[in-house]
Please model this.
Amino acid sequence: MAELDILEDLGLSEAEAKIYLTLLETGQTLAGPVIKKTGLHRGTTYQILQRLIEKGLVSYIVKAGKRYFEAVSPERFLDILKTKEEKFLEILPVLKNKKELGKLKQEVEVFSGYKGIRSVCDKILEELKDKGEYLDFGVSGLFKEVMGPYWDLWQKRKRKYKIKAKCIFNEELKTKNPKLLKDYFGEARFHPKEYSSPTDTIIYKDTIVLFIWTAKPPIAIVIKNQKNADGYKKQFQIMWKLAKK
Model:
């Protein structure tokens, strides 16, 4: 029955819907005819009638000591829906805020050793295919030293995928490892050697990757959080302006 299904969608149980529809058909009546027509247990019927009264969907009067029940107008459901809508609108801003907080939830993963770090670097390339861009500072040349030939492969794949890069290197590399700078694919600037750092920081999209090359074994900490990534990007832009070409 379509009416039964719709009333259930509106929040009534199957038994509540059956009793309400029965009362609409019978008009004001004692509980007996309702029990007979619905086939529900006597005790269950009285319990459900009480629930429908509390919901404002059934009323009753007392005649000669007996209760006569009657369904209220179906339009009462519109009032209930309106009340529910008003209550929902009251908490809607809170729910939307929770969703936004959920988006900003920070995911942190730690990868260690050669294989772990390689998987992180492979993922960066995969996510930046077709002219993506990453920013990098604290570059001391330890990436190549720790990862060996993989560093050269990474540069080749960057070139293949046309991935843009802006890296701030330690100026010592100009004399210490000029070949690394020659093989590097991307824009380069330099900070003074006294600002050398063992941590290489890459920022792209909503992700920050901290490579700690001097750890034993070396580790990569991957942080996914758009707000934090945006903050790091602003920090990088300041450093980029101050760095030497």
